[in-house]
Specification:
The chain is mainly α and 148 residues long. It has helices spanning 3-10, 14-22, 41-55, 60-71, 77-112, 127-147, and strands at 30-31, 37-38. Helix 5 (77-112) crosses helix 6 (127-147).
Length: 148
């Protein structure tokens, strides 16, 4: 099958397929006499696996290692467990950071109501954003004081 057919079968676009080939997640396909790429069912299965792994936000390097383990005849399960554990921790850390950022935005939103609008004659670019830096500095100073 040609690249467009593979793309349709798996639900990705042709540039994505070419990218996965360039980083080694898909093997270089055979070529037809016309020069067109020629894929088979094993490519469909492999691309579906890559797509599922990417839907879990697994890094490309890890997906490549999983595929390499399987190609060497090794079960990738232990490695996959390690990746899942690591990624779960990273997601939890991102969620905590997003929660902190959301709270900071809400505080800044409330504080911004009291800030003056002085564009275009003011000396700073935007008081609201610059106030965010002072709020962050205050929070950092408070956190340092509270942990000592």
């Amino acid at each position: 099958m040609r690249i467009g057919q593979l793309a349709k079968a798996v639900g990705v676009d042709a540039p994505t397929i070419r990218f996965y080939e360039s980083v080694g997640l898909l093997p270089e396909p055979t070529r037809r006499p016309s020069g067109y790429r020629d894929y088979d069912e094993s490519d469909v299965d492999r691309l579906r696996f890559v797509r599922r792994a990417r839907s879990l936000d697994l890094p490309l390097d890890d997906i490549g290692e999983i595929l390499a383990l399987r190609e060497r005849g090794e079960a990738p399960c232990r490695f996959v467990r390690e990746v899942i554990d690591r990624e779960a921790v990273a997601i939890e850390e991102r969620m905590a950071e997003l929660k902190r950022l959301s709270a900071e935005m809400r505080r800044l939103q409330q504080r911004s109501e009291d800030l003056r609008d002085d564009w275009p004659t003011g000396e700073c670019i935007c008081h609201i954003i610059e106030d965010a830096a002072s709020v962050s500095n205050i929070d950092t100073a408070e956190n340092i004081t509270n942990t000592e």
